[in-house]
Amino acid sequence: MTKLLLVIAVLASPLLAMQQDEATGKLGGGDKPVKTSTSTSKVTTNRKTTKTSNAKPFLDWQLLATGDNMKHYYQPASITRTAEGTSRLWIKYLPIDLNRERRTRRSEVRDQAKAQLYDTYASTMCLYEVDCASQKLRPLELIDYDTSGAVINSAKASANSEWYDPVPGSLMDVIRAVVCKK
Questions:
Q1: In the 8-state DSSP scheme, what is residue 70?
Q2: Of the candidates 89, 155, 171, 174, which lies 20 to 30 Å from 135 by C-alpha distance?
Q3: Cα-only R_g, the chain
């Protein structure tokens, strides 16, 4: 899990910023609260459907939340249940200001050859596992894509990675609420 968190810190600064700012109830390091269709404290009803480049063609992506520089989408029909009683879903992160996000990601990658790959960065996908019984969740996989849909970089968590209690009103809390319908 430590390796995945390190990779997330280097490759997905908006995801890390969300984690860091969850204590303040703000997303993405900005001043704006999370806008969601399921949160009761900071609600903006917004159920838009969009098709994106690396989406499965038969599943539509729905807007889940909007942060400072990211829009977060999910596919309701793709939520799966595991034999262990947990649920899994993919969240797609699309930058609002693509050029700003590319500059940020390039600057955070130490390997110059890998940093150049972020010149064509388009989106990030993150697979989450949610345990509705304990109300906890954890990231399992993170994938960055370029404009053609090719993978720039990816990371997977270990099988026994740590579970997290989502901060109320945070993106992680919205993900938990959508999956657990609470």
A1: E
A2: 155
A3: 15
